[in-house]
Amino acid sequence: MESTTQRSDVGTALGSYAQAREWIGRRSELRLTDVAVDESRCKLFAALSEDANPAYWDRQWATAQFGAPLAPSGMTMSLIMSLPWKPGGAPNAAPSLAVDVPLPGQTFINVDTDCEFLRPIRWGDHFSVYEEIVDISAEKNTRLGRGHFVTTCMNLLDTKGQLVARLTNVLYRYEAAES
Amino acid sequence: MSTTTIYPQRLWSEVKVGDVLPPIELLVEYSRIILNVASTWDYFPGHHNPDYARAQGQPNIYVSTIFFHGFVDRLITDWGGPSSFIRRRRMRMVASVHPGDTMRAEGHVVRHYRDDHGQGLVDLDIHIDTARGLCVPASATVRLPLAQGERLFSLE
Lengths: 179, 156
Prior knowledge:
The complex is a heterodimer.
Chain A: H1 17-21, E1 31-32, H2 39-48, H3 54-57, H4 59-66, H5 97-100, E2 107-117, E3 128-136, E4 140-141, E5 145-157, E6 163-176
Antiparallel strand pairs in A: 1-3, 2-6, 3-5, 4-5, 5-6
Chain B: E1 20-27, H1 30-40, H2 50-55, H3 65-80, E2 85-92, E3 102-114, E4 120-130, E5 133-143
């Protein structure tokens, strides 16, 4: 049961590859993200890459062109991140179902992404997301250590239930090699 | 009467295979890595805790995938213009970027075509490097307007 699952200090569920295989095809519940897309997050993200695209900065132009200013499409994966704390002590959603898969690897690193967009993301959009475990590799040995590649697919739906983006991600769950 | 600024926009018909996107560069200082964490809400300790990053087998903290997404998208829209729509972007993280590195993104057009709906598309081959070499090979499919002022999407 989930409540008895041992977790690492970064929240990864620990278990065997045999246990992990049972997770292939598993789908998370639909979850409403913590906040809607807003101006401050979009501009802060654009500032990270010093991106002057007026779709993110010029409200008048962007509204005429798109109906509202846009979020940089590059920040889409951040829109599914949970707040680090919320009142009531409710557990926050893991950043990915790949963290909840029981595997020996305590730590992880992201290795591959494939993002498809069906329309631009606008200020005010509020997404619900669900994720599926697509594949979990047999044990591999890389320069970082031994582990498993976990492939997930996350779907972002708008308030009308329309698919807006699909993010396929490969994350490496591993035990760091002795240095 | 209000006026709306007109920004340069590349049209699909103006592009050909082999066209080179102007490279972009960013110095990754510690402050930018903190901005990376704050702007993405990605609090995984490999991005802000040097001890944790070293225990992972990394020499220091490193920037996140989401930063690479934004950096590649800036390369594309700096070249294409603000009405460009990134339909698909794929990337692999083959090496990490650490404080003190300068990231450089380059790309070029590898395919120029219309889809079944007549939309004007280009495929791009992209890579992000540091002085140590290749970090992120990437590719993207981008829709460009067929005419100046064309709206690619309805306003709602």
